[in-house]
């Protein structure tokens, strides 16, 4: 659906030492640790876009071990659902296929995602489609979740959070793993991965192949996903060269239509996709989404001096695919079909036909290319503890076109595969440069400063303001200056106070232009982000308490309008804010018991908002004014907890739960157009066995995850639209039901 749309268990360690101060070695390899410490590693490079305990910002490090404890085949958002302020969504209801994540109420189009520092967000929609990266967790070393604006990074501005993903680190010993998961709704994940370990003390090669499939909870909501990962590395004491190829291919039956809420208690698994509102006698079998995404990265890093490192990462991300759909009663003119057609009827007269049923494919092909760079200084003396000069140049080309593959009256259709719509290519260039530094004012007090300049040139095909609504190729330019600053104060050896202020700015998405009349064209939005908190990072009780205030100017929010395929259209609102308190605690009362919990209480408001509703009786729109109202999809309360016990060595039992408060489907705070609060309880069993009788077999892991053990009937996403007709105001709500009790079991062999 790219043409029209766009952790793990809660952490015991609530903050971590800077990644560059750790040796990023996976597994237990005591005999090779000295080798690992002597060479430059990829983990020493990704810190250019990562927060640390010196940056005065709010972040969470999710380790590989924590990701693997949850990795039964569900997408990355579901592996992060125990981190603060997170709400996850799944179109098919199982966490496989099209999934999404919201953090502090902001969706994936406003969450900046990088892979080894390289931007992942699609340049036009700003979205991230984890369905194109199946089983990415198996090749992930760690994920840093930065809430709020965070430090400067590459790609579109973060307006709720950033996800900084680092792929596998150095593994000095040769290894192989076979991981299989299977469970409810035909869900099945198979993963094979292997690595050479260090060859001649310098070379490593790592590879992975994965296949994930599921029939989905929603009728016909199936997914067929494949991915490959290959990385080759050369490193010595001063040089690191790393080539990485990551490819993912997905075919999914469309389940993004949602379910009319009137059917929620009658047939909650019903899927409208392929039925074309009942006009086709049975669901069209190939109502599918098909897409492939290929990532190519080449990291070049050189230790220039003992304190100065330069890294450059050229990259190319290529994507292409389409979604296919059956459409009934389509006008000839739209598809270039000759007409009208005169057809005899039963009475002997002629019917005049100007429409037909068609099958069409809507295509998107993209190329994202460029390079990121970072010059990092870490002095061994003086007040400046770290300084970075970095940035990126990113180019983009997007091709949007539609093909007609079949029509009911075939003699009048142009040649199969004819493009009935072919939009001029979109082009975008994005250049940013930032400088930041950490300075120790005293032994306890530190200051952080960060300044980014970003310039964007966007060329696209959009309405140009003519009365007939015509479109033309246009160029739009943006220039953003984003300052950030923070303070940290070390109260004790393990307790820290921090505060920060950041400005972030972000351009509108493609559909904000293409689906909006020129006279209502949106402008860029600005975020002023204030953060302050306390965190304790050692001892049996570790905890953090963070307060945030995110003030927006011209925030883009739902307008109440939909485009021609049902996607929401946004509008700028002058004043809005998100304010909240995030709490997190991890307690280990005894060595075999760990309790963790997170909770966020927040207010998410728009001041002076006007909602518009199409009025088909009088023409135009009906306006309703709100002095203050809630921002859509922003619950006032979210919470999660994990309790894990190890009754016998190697056996771990865990209870996991998450809660989300009421979420409104639009910005009118109307309860009849909202998602009810929900609480979902999961349980997990893991058993680790270290065999001694089987040569080469290092570890066997068996695990079972039971999701939604109380069979709660809930939904976690939806949309609404309405209009005035026949003197009545009518609204239509669509929601995404989630699976009731279901399970996944895994068997993992590690050599």
Task: Explain the overall architecture.
This protein is mainly beta and 751 residues long. The protein has one domain: Maltoporin, Chain A. The chain is 3% helix and 57% strand. It has a 22-stranded antiparallel β-barrel. Strands 1-6-7-4-5 form a five-stranded mixed sheet. Strands 2-3 form a two-stranded antiparallel sheet. Strand 25 and strand 26 form a beta hairpin. The radius of gyration is 26 Å and the shape is globular. The two termini are 39 Å apart. It is a multi-pass membrane protein. Belongs to the TonB-dependent receptor family. Its main location: membrane. It is found in: Cell outer membrane.
Keywords for this entry:
iron transport, mainly beta, 38 strands, 5-stranded mixed beta sheet, 5 helices, receptor, 22-stranded antiparallel beta barrel, Maltoporin, Chain A, 751 residues
Strand composition percent? over 45%
Label the CATH architecture: Beta Barrel
CATH first level: Mainly Beta
Total separate domains: 1
Rg of Cα set: 26 Å
């Amino acid at each position: 659906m790219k043409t029209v749309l766009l952790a793990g268990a809660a952490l015991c360690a609530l903050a971590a030492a800077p990644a560059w101060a750790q040796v990023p070695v996976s597994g237990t390899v005591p005999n090779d640790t000295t080798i690992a410490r002597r060479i430059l590693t990829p983990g020493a490079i990704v810190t250019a876009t990562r927060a640390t305990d010196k940056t005065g910002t709010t972040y969470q490090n999710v380790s590989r071990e924590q990701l693997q404890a949850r990795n039964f085949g569900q997408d990355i958002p579901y592996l992060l659902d125990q981190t603060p302020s997170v709400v996850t969504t799944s179109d098919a209801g199982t966490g496989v296929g099209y999934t999404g994540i919201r953090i502090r109420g902001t969706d994936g189009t406003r969450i900046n995602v990088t892979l080894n520092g390289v931007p992942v967000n699609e340049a036009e929609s700003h979205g991230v489609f984890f369905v194109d990266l199946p089983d990415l967790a198996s090749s992930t070393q760690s994920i840093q979740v930065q809430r709020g604006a965070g430090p400067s990074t590459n790609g579109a501005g973060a307006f709720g959070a950033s996800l900084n993903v680092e792929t596998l680190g150095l593994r000095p010993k040769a290894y192989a793993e076979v991981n299989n998961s299977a469970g409810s709704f035909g869900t099945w994940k198979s993963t094979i991965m292997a690595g050479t370990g260090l060859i001649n003390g310098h070379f490593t090669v790592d590879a992975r192949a994965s296949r994930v499939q599921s029939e989905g909870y929603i009728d016909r909501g199936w997914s067929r996903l494949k991915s490959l990962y290959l990385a080759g590395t050369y490193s010595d004491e001063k040089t690191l060269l790393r080539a990485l190829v990551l490819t993912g291919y997905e075919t999914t039956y469309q389940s993004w239509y949602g379910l009319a809420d009137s059917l929620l208690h009658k047939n909650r698994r019903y899927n409208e996709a392929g039925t074309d509102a009942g006009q086709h006698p049975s669901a069209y079998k190939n109502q599918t989404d098909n897409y492939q995404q290929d990532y190519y990265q080449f990291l070049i890093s050189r230790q220039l001096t003992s304190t100065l490192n330069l890294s450059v990462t050229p990259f190319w991300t290529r994507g292409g695919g389409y979604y296919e759909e059956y459409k009934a009663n389509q006008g000839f003119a739209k598809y270039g079909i000759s007409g009208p057609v005169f057809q005899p009827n039963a009475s002997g007269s002629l019917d005049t036909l100007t429409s037909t049923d068609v099958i069409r494919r809507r295509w998107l092909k993209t190329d994202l290319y460029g390079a990121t760079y970072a010059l990092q200084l870490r002095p061994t003396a003086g007040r400046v503890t770290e300084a970075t000069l970095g940035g990126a140049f990113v180019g983009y080309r997007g091709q949007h076109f539609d093909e007609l593959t079949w029509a009911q009256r075939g003699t009048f259709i142009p040649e199969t595969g004819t493009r009935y719509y072919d939009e001029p290519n979109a082009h975008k260039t994005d250049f940013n440069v930032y400088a930041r530094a950490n300075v120790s004012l005293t032994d306890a007090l530190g200051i952080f400063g960060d300044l980014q300049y970003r310039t964007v040139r966007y060329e696209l095909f959009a309405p140009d303001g003519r009365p007939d609504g015509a479109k033309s190729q246009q160029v739009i330019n943006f220039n953003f200056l984003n300052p950030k600053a923070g303070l940290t104060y070390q109260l004790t050896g393990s307790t820290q106070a921090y505060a920060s202020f950041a400005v972030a700015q972000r351009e509108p998405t493609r559909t904000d232009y293409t689906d909006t009349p020129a006279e209502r064209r949106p402008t860029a939005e600005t975020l002023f982000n204030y953060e302050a908190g306390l965190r304790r990072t050692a001892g049996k009780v570790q905890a953090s308490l963070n307060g945030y205030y995110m003030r927006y100017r011209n925030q883009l929010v739902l307008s109440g309008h939909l485009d021609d395929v049902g996607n929401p259209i946004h509008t700028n609102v002058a004043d809005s804010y998100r304010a909240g308190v995030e709490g997190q605690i991890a307690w280990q009362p005894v060595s075999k018991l760990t309790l963790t919990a997170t909770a966020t209480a927040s207010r998410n408001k728009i001041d002076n908002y006007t909602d518009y509703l199409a009025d088909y009786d009088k023409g135009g729109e009906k306006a309703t004014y709100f002095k203050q109202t809630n921002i859509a999809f922003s619950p006032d309360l979210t919470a999660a907890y994990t309790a894990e016990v190890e009754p016998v060595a190697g056996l771990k039992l865990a209870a996991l739960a998450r809660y989300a408060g009421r979420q409104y489907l639009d910005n009118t705070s109307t309860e009849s157009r909202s998602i009810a609060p929900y609480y979902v309880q999961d349980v997990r069993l893991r058993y680790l066995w270290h065999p001694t009788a089987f040569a080469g077999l290092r570890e066997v892991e068996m695990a079972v995850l039971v999701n939604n053990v109380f069979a709660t009937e809930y939904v976690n996403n939806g949309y609404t639209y309405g209009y005035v007709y026949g003197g009545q105001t009518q609204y239509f709500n669509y929601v995404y039901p989630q699976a009731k009790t279901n399970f996944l079991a895994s068997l993992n062999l590690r050599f």
